[in-house]
């Protein structure tokens, strides 16, 4: 009722002003007050009738809007207590503005329609905030769980490595190679979770590119030896502004794919003067129709389906990581002749703090 009166205060004021002016005129000309009272009564009666009819119509519209919003927003919010309280008791604007989660200064509602819209927006904002917190908490819980899981699974992996190193046999070498793949998949799980979280696990600094490449080569050296694949790399004297850990992850994923899909020949790592790092192999290559989609999440392509072990996550994570590092990654390939993956390390718009 208070909102309705506020909405029509101008009309009420205009009628009362007219009545007041008539009163002044009757007094100045000393006319009979009976005529004034009769005319003013008719004015006020008509005004009361108009406001009454308009009030009941507006209240019906107001109730229909509340019912529609209760059905729509209630379903979206899971029947939140906030909306039920608004629907049943009709909170005042001042009460809404005193809520802790309300940070925007709202204008006072001067009509039921505006009040309904404001209540709807407030409920949606509240639910959006709740869902955002739930999502962040869920991501953090997942990250904590998988971080713990990765550290725990490394213990039996280390034990198995020690057991396999006790005797150098062909069988043990095969088992060590498979165990190495398990380690890579474990690290991929943690990387996938970290890239999907809001944590900023990136530290940019000047890194020795040669040392980074050598460390990755050393890590995959047993795989090259086992597959009898020649590795070609000319040392470079170059530093790049990047995150060393995450760049190493990209390089290791590219080396992993090169070893996986190269059955004979060589893998070449090269760095150009304009800071473009390339990993080229003489493997089976990538089909022309698959090349535009190889960085998509879960896409395995013809080679992945034939291998039956591809997850479609390795190159996807490489692209995600490269985007976070501010570098570009590009692939060229010829089926049956090999592939070339190029990282443009010339990061722009970044400065060492």
Précis, in short:
With 353 residues, this protein is of the alpha+beta class.
The biggest sheet, with number of strands, parallel, antiparallel or mixed sense and barrel status, is: 5 strands, mixed
Indicate the overall shape.
Answer: rod-shaped
Poorly predicted segments: 87-106
> Count of DSSP E strands?
7
Our measurement of the CA-to-CA distance between the termini, rounded to an integer number of angstroms, reads 61 Å
Number of helices: 11
Q: What is the string of helix and strand elements?
A: HHHHHHHEHEEHEEHHEE
Helical content (DSSP H or I, runs of 4+): 55-70%
State Rg: 36 Å
Into which percentage range does the β-strand content fall?
5-15%
Across the major sheet, the strand order is 2-4-5-7-6
* Rounded average pLDDT: 80
SS content category: alpha+beta
Structure keywords:
alpha+beta, 5-stranded mixed β-sheet, two-stranded antiparallel ribbon
Question: How is this structure best described in words?
Answer:
The chain is of the alpha+beta class. The protein is built from 11 helices and 7 strands. The protein has helices at residues 2-7, 9-28, 33-77, 81-89, 93-97, 112-165, 170-196, 209-227, 244-261, 301-307, 314-325; strands spanning 205-208, 230-233, 239-242, 266-271, 276-281, 328-334, 338-344. Strand 4 and strand 5 (276-281) form a beta hairpin. The longest helix is centred in the middle third of the chain and has 54 residues, at 112-165. The two termini are 61 Å apart.
């Amino acid at each position: 009722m208070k909102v309705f009166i506020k909405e029509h205060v101008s009309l009420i004021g205009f009628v009362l002003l007219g009545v007041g002016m008539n009163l002044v005129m009757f007094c100045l000309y000393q006319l009979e007050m009976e005529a004034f009272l009769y005319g003013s009564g008719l004015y006020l009666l008509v005004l009361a009738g108009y406001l009454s009819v308009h009030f009941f119509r507006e209240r019906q519209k107001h109730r229909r809007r509340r019912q529609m919003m209760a059905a729509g927003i209630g379903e979206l919010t899971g029947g939140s207590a906030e909306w039920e309280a608004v629907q049943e008791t009709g909170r005042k604007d001042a009460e809404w503005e005193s809520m802790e989660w309300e940070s925007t200064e709202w204008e006072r509602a001067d009509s039921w329609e505006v009040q309904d819209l404001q209540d709807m927006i407030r409920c949606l904002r509240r639910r959006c905030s709740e869902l955002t917190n739930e999502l962040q908490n869920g991501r953090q819980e997942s990250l904590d769980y998988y971080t713990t899981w990765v550290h725990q699974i490394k213990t039996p992996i280390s034990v198995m490595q020690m057991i396999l190193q006790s005797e150098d046999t062909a069988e043990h070498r095969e088992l060590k190679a498979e165990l190495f793949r398990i380690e890579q998949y474990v690290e991929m799980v943690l990387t996938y979770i970290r890239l999907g979280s809001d944590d900023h696990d990136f530290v940019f600094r000047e890194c020795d590119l040669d040392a980074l490449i050598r460390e990755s080569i050393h890590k995959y050296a047993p795989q090259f030896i086992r597959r009898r694949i020649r590795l070609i790399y000319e040392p470079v004297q170059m530093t790049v502004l990047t995150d060393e850990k995450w760049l190493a992850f990209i390089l290791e994923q590219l080396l992993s794919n090169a070893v996986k899909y190269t059955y004979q020949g060589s893998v070449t790592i090269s760095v150009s003067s304009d800071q473009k790092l390339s990993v080229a192999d003489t493997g089976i290559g990538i089909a022309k129709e698959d090349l535009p989609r190889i960085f998509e999440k879960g896409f395995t392509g013809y080679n992945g389906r034939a291998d039956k072990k591809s997850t479609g996550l390795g190159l996807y994570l490489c692209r995600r990581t490269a985007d976070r590092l501010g570098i570009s990654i590009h692939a060229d390939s010829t089926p049956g002749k090999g592939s070339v993956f190029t990282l443009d390390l010339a990061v722009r718009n970044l400065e060492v703090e």
